[in-house]
Design brief:
globular, three-stranded antiparallel beta sheet, seven-stranded mixed beta sheet, single chain, Aspartate Aminotransferase, domain 2, alpha/beta, binds 4'-deoxy-4'-aminopyridoxal-5'-phosphate, 2 domains, Aspartate Aminotransferase, domain 1, 16 strands
């Protein structure tokens, strides 16, 4: 039935798919240790701030005009960054960007999903994906990950064949589990996608590498498969490793043909001149901005080792293998009580993932000490 606006008698013709739905989002609370949305705990340093401020000031003088709609300058800078990070060189026209990789994903589903079509992913995975599906009227289908959160290749192939999705979303490292996918798995899914028949075309495979830079040395990026598969898109973000979540810049690399379809569905001038200026200034400082990635990886591995050495009543904690800047651990009979107990001690983590698990983002050494001290108290480790 039509919903009412809060506090008013006016009834609104709310779309049936969203009636009664709460807006997505983790609590934004003012506590000392924010370890709940996988942010980078290190703010940009003074040099980076000065560069960003200078470039934003220059952009401010042009704000009477719409921004560069094709933003090929930023796309070229992102292509250069990807080449230096992964060794894979793509042309600027093979790069796309938007306000966070959230919007990049929305563009993908606006372009390749839609009524009568399906998007397939493998749960547990990022909880925003079903919302992109809902908002593009695409049917959401979730295959299961194995007990250890890996994706079984045969099960994935079978799911693709059964569901005939137009879009397949793989996440590597996966949120909230931290699991990376071997390139062989991505390749097998790309091959299975070529066998799909959606209006005479194969499926698009999206590998969400939002946490890609945190992967272990030697784990390859799916960018390496781009040349082989014109139906593959690999998305990244400046929100995590780049410590730029507040700027809202996500991007992907794919074939030119795939990117050209995304240009059709974007809103005109979707990436503001201010955003473009911030992103380009930040990319000139990528070495400084990414400097903490190694430290965060080390802190992550230490956190995993610490958690694995903890026991309750002689039983060790479960801790998922992780290549991201967070760790999924558990399991707790009453995870909400543990979450609340940590919050009461100034440590905000995330209640997410399968029943009984909690996810903690990797913060500064001080954040992690506070987290460990609080957890020992709350969970009786
Ligand atoms: N993909 C995954 C797997 C994520 O965890 C997140 C953020 N939590 C995003 C995409 C979106 O990030 P952003 O929009 O900040 O780029």
């Amino acid at each position: 039935s039509p919903a009412s606006a809060p506090g008013r008698s006016l009834r609104l013709p709310v779309r049936p798919g969203i009636v009664g739905t709460e807006p997505y989002g983790a609590p934004q609370l003012d506590v000392p240790h924010l370890l709940n949305v996988n942010e980078n705990p290190y703010p940009p340093d003074a040099d980076v701030v000065a560069s960003i401020a200078a470039d934003v000031a220059a952009a401010a003088g042009t704000l009477n005009r719409y921004p560069d709609r094709e933003f090929l300058g930023l796309r070229a800078d992102l292509a250069d960054y990807l080449a230096s990070e992964s060794g894979v060189r793509v042309a600027p026209e093979q790069v796309w960007a938007a306000n966070g990789s959230n919007e990049v994903m929305l563009h993908l589903l606006q372009a390749f999903g839609g009524p009568g079509r399906r998007v397939l992913s493998f749960a547990p995975t990022y909880s925003m994906y079903p919302e992109y599906a809902r908002d593009t009227l695409t049917e959401w289908v979730a295959g299961r990950r194995a007990e250890d959160f890996t994706v079984d290749v045969d099960a994935a192939r079978a799911a693709v064949a059964t569901h005939q999705p137009s879009v397949i979303l793989l996440t590597s490292p996966n949120n909230p589990t931290g699991t990376t996918l071997p390139l062989a798995t991505v390749r097998a899914v790309c091959d299975a996608a070529l066998e799909v028949d959606v209006d005479g075309a194969p499926a698009v495979v999206v590998v969400d590498e939002a946490y890609g830079e945190f992967r272990r040395i030697g784990v390859p990026s799916a960018l390496e498969l781009l040349e082989e598969y014109p139906n593959l898109a690999v998305s990244r973000t400046m929100s995590k490793a780049f410590a730029l979540a507040g700027a809202r810049v996500g991007y992907l690399a794919a074939s030119r043909d795939l990117v050209d379809v995304l240009r059709v569905v974007r809103l005109p001038y979707h990436l503001s001149a201010v955003t473009q200026a911030v992103a380009r200034a930040a990319l000139r400082h990528s070495t400084a901005l990414l400097a903490q990635v190694d430290a965060l990886r080390t802190e992550r591995d230490a956190t995993v080792a610490w958690l694995r050495a903890r026991t309750r009543d002689g039983v060790p904690l479960d801790v998922a293998d992780t290549d991201a800047n967070f760790v999924l651990f558990g399991t707790f009979d009453d995870r909400h009580a543990v979450w609340q107990g940590l919050l009461d001690r100034g440590v905000l983590v995330r209640e997410t993932g399968p029943d009984g698990w909690l996810r903690v983002s990797i913060g500064t050494p001080q954040d992690m000490t506070a987290f460990k001290d609080a957890l020992v108290e709350v969970a009786g480790l």
